[in-house]
Write a structure and sequence with these properties.
Layout (H helix, E strand, L loop, with lengths): L2 E7 L5 H18 L4 E7 L5 E2 L5 E2 L3 E2 L5 E7 L10 H10 L3 E7 L2 H7 L7 E2 L6 H7 L4 E2 L4 E4 L2 E4 L2 H16 L1 H11 L2 H4 L10 H13 L7 H8 L3 H12 L3 H19 L4 H7 L5 H12 L3 H5 L5
Parallel strand pairs: 1-2, 1-6, 2-5, 6-7, 7-11, 8-9
Antiparallel strand pairs: 3-4, 10-11
Helix pairs in contact: 1-5, 1-6, 5-6, 6-11, 11-13, 12-13
């Protein structure tokens, strides 16, 4: 069943924070080829909210209409003007309608004022962290990009919002999908900055992914990848299975096919040309693998006959 995320916007919200929250969810739906996430934009009264840069968002409804898996409170700038009962009371009333509550950017302050973070660990935009810690002594304030504390989630700003949403996607649907979503957004340089959650094998696996991504056109044998990592092929397989829940061959194939899907959707290159760029001998070999992975052929995708 798809998860329902509601985003509560206020005037002067951050476009950057909003995009970094919603776009990974949209990409996860695309990668999965099914609806994993639905989202709605809400305001307190159902009236439009205008961002700090002048973007007006017409919401799907008022906070009183909302309910679901996660409510994300996103005020960003001017949050101190919202520190009053007219805001905190509706948040308290909404608590019972959501499985989890989240404060993004400065939204942590409003949740804290409503008493919804008491006894939890939490973070906020670091410029406000000292004041947050002094004002709300019943909260364990942390200087962290994001904090998941039971059914309360907080993050420190727009860039952290992307990392947090990626973590939520990975927790719900497995770590490999986060790699696939990251491929959609990141250039080669920024992809190298993307790391998996810390774990004993995480650094090695991250290096393996980078090596695979650098060699999609001429795939390396798994034995050669292991040699370059300075480990046995067996150890490499164990680490990849533990971190990404797949064999090195399966993960390498998915990375190559994800590139093929991107090229099919976004370029006018022939299937034969795309096959060559993705390490397949010919168009027929790519088409067979593509259909197994995505449930349609490259030509069907290009004609809009598949989601």
């Amino acid at each position: 069943m798809a998860q329902q995320f509601d985003l509560l916007l206020f005037d002067n919200f951050s476009n950057h924070c909003l995009a970094n929250t919603v776009e990974p969810l949209r990409a996860a739906n695309t990668v999965a080829r099914r609806i994993l996430y639905n989202w709605r934009f809400l305001t307190l009264d159902g009236a439009p909210a205008v961002s700090s840069s002048g973007l007006s968002v017409t919401p799907h409804g008022a906070l009183s209409d909302g309910g679901g898996d996660l409510l994300i409170v996103m005020p960003s700038y001017g949050f101190r003007d919202l520190d009053n009962r007219a805001v905190t009371r509706p948040l308290q009333q909404a608590r019972s309608r959501y499985t989890q509550l989240a404060g993004f950017d400065t939204g942590s302050w409003l949740l804290a004022r409503a008493g919804l973070l008491d006894g939890h660990q939490a973070t906020i935009h670091w410029e406000e962290l000292a004041s947050f810690e002094e004002t709300f002594p019943d909260i364990d304030a942390l200087r962290a990009r994001y904090v998941i504390s039971g059914d309360r989630i907080t993050c420190s700003g727009a860039m952290a919002a992307f990392d947090l949403v990626m973590a939520l996607i990975g927790e719900a649907h497995g770590p490999l999908i986060t790699v696939e979503v990251a491929q959609i957004f990141m250039t080669e340089a920024s992809a190298r900055a993307f790391t998996l959650a810390p774990s004993p094998g995480g650094r090695m696996v991250d290096r393996v992914l980078h090596l695979m991504q650098d060699n999609l056109e001429s795939p390396l044998p798994i034995a050669e990848i292991a040699r370059r990592m300075g480990c046995s092929q067996k150890l490499l397989e164990v680490r990849m299975q533990a971190e990404l829940q797949g064999t090195p061959n399966a993960i390498y194939r998915r990375l190559r096919l994800n590139l093929a899907r991107k090229l099919v959707a976004e370029t006018d290159q022939t299937v034969a040309e795309i096959a060559g760029r993705c390490g397949y001998e010919n168009a027929s070999a790519l088409t067979r693998a593509f259909k197994v992975q995505f449930g349609c052929t490259p030509r069907q995708l290009r004609k809009g006959e598949a989601w």
